[in-house]
Design goal:
Layout: H1 11-31, H2 34-79, H3 82-101
Helix pairs in contact: 1-2, 2-3
Region (Disordered): 1-104
Biased composition (Polar residues): 1-20, 95-104
Organism: Boletus reticuloceps
Length: 104
């Protein structure tokens, strides 16, 4: 399910594998090669699974950043530490953007 060069799932690698699998499947369908068609379907499915795994991982990381950023912002506000408050707000916004990009 993961790409061979990196143990973490990758949206780019997953999408590339999915597209390649679709091409192989199409060639198999056009030539009547059941072996190519089946191989392409399987590769497409692996690519889609990797893409979704990377998407889920990115979304979860966004949640972590949002929660951590919110906490830092509140602690900074309560303690009067403007630097911590600003840093927390920035982390919260980064997490929000990461969640938006990785919405299921």
């Amino acid at each position: 399910m993961t790409n061979p060069t990196n143990q973490d799932p990758s949206k780019v690698s997953g999408r590339a594998q999915s597209v390649k699998g679709s091409v192989v499947e199409t060639v198999g369908d056009m030539t009547g090669s059941q072996e190519w068609s089946q191989s392409g379907k399987e590769e497409h499915a692996r690519g889609e699974a990797e893409y979704k795994a990377a998407q889920g991982k990115g979304y979860a990381e966004g949640v972590t950043d949002r929660v951590g950023g919110y906490k830092d912002s509140v602690v900074g506000s309560v303690s009067g530490d403007k630097s911590q408050q600003v840093s927390g707000n920035a982390r919260n916004e980064k997490g929000q953007a990461q969640q938006e990009v990785n919405k299921p």
